[in-house]
Amino acid sequence: MLTINNLVKHRGTDKILSGISFKARPGRVTGFLGPNGAGKSSTLRILLGLDHATSGSALINGKPFAELHNPLTTVGAALDGFGAHRMRTGRAHLRWIARAAGLSRSRVEEVLEIVGLTNAAGKRVGSYSLGMGKRLGMAAALLGDPQILVLDEPVNGLDPEGIRWIRTFLRERAQSGNTVLLSSHLMGELAETVDDVVIIHHGKVVADGTLEEVIGNHSTLEEAFFALTSEHAGDVV
Amino acid sequence: MSISSSKKITKILGAELDKLVSLPLIWLTLIGTFILNLVLAAAFTSAGLQGAAGTQSILNIGLASMGYLQAGFIILGISATCSEYTSGQIRTTLTVIPWRGFQLSAKHLALAVITIPAAFIIAASGILYTFMMMRDTAVGFEIDTMIETLVGATGYLTLTTLLSAAIGALLRRTTPALVMLLGYYFIISPLSRDFLPNYFPDTAGYYMYMPASNDEINVLTPMQGTGILMLWTLIFIKVAIIFYRQRDA
User: Fold this and answer.
1) Does residue B23 belong to the interface with chain A, where contact is any CB pair within 8 Å?
2) What are the TM regions of this chain, as residue ranges (chain B) (predicted)?
3) How far apart are CA B23 and CA B21, in angstroms?
4) pLDDT at B4 > cutoff 90
5) Using CB atoms, which residue from B87, B96, B246 is nearest to A82?
6) Residue B70: count of CB within 10 angstroms of its CB
7) B101 has pLDDT over 60
8) In chain A, what residues touch B94 (CB-CB under 8 Å)?
9) Which architecture, in CATH terms, is A2-78+150-229?
């Protein structure tokens, strides 16, 4: 369970987050939506202990990220960018992560196989395409076979086959009782994958509920999103 | 310390070692420094063969390249910490090892593990080359003196590497860190040596490996030099850890 409670983040005089609260529950895929600059990445970064909150809390199973005993086996995270040094090979990148978590090298080969990157594992990350970089990020997130996945724009840069794979994969993870939180700006794709939706705008939650609740009277999630994030949108759904 | 903490530290240290050895830039820097040192040793030895040589002369000539050699170790230290900020690797690091103080300390420790043998081999290669070329003119060569000098040079290069790594961690970007450190070691320090006391990292560290000549004033013993450079290094590592804990990644 991920619990974001009244999270506030200021950067200088800018208010990035203005007291956002929501939960991502086990057994469900939660989509985290918002326009660029709405505060999605800041929320995920605070949740993962990368950034400090001005106030409020972001907890994983009731604990801040830094208090987790073995983070990699609890939370798998893939944020924007490759998250790996360009001069290192994909396999070497995964191996140091596995070493830090006390995982075997055979697990590295397993996740490379899962994400379809075995043949490119010996190449330097700098030579990877955007899609391959995303797969490497997914491989790192899956190394510890975690109960929780936090993914920032996971389908960005993937080919149709990759998008289909990730959709099926995330659905299966949720069905087996895991928690999945993903941000995306691809509404159509998100509507196919998520159970619950949280929409933020200008650092505030403007919608939080099941996919059906958030879509409400609108015909699609995309229409609901634009209605909720337009400048004159109403209160929280 | 509990078994759990000790296992955790071992895993983090192992991961940091893996990171360093799997980064080609680290090996390129070390190999480049080794080759450059041999070239400089050959040049200084060739010049030294023109004059009278004794034990001290061989050590002095063999370590004459230290001033230039340290540039390679400064680059090594900066690369170790600033490489975290390339392609967002720091985000992966902190989601795998969120204990920032432990992680940065382990990185410095892993760097020391790699630097100590590398610095010893590189410094020894310069002395060995000089010894082989000048042994016919060497009188009463003292092996103890050579070992002490080599240990001092290894210590100096290792502490300089760790200091550079701490400054790299503070600045987080390779170019500013390189400009600052190379600017200090190769421009500011040499120009201000006559005016400033011997308490700066390079001037104090000099006495770790180079015995002071009798006509020098304000000389330090090798132990004093070691203590002062170690203090500078620990202070910078501590400051880097404080900032690392407080800043957003």
Assistant:
1) yes
2) 20-45, 57-82, 109-131, 151-171, 178-200, 220-244
3) 6
4) no
5) B87
6) 24
7) yes
8) 48-50
9) 3-Layer(aba) Sandwich (3.40)
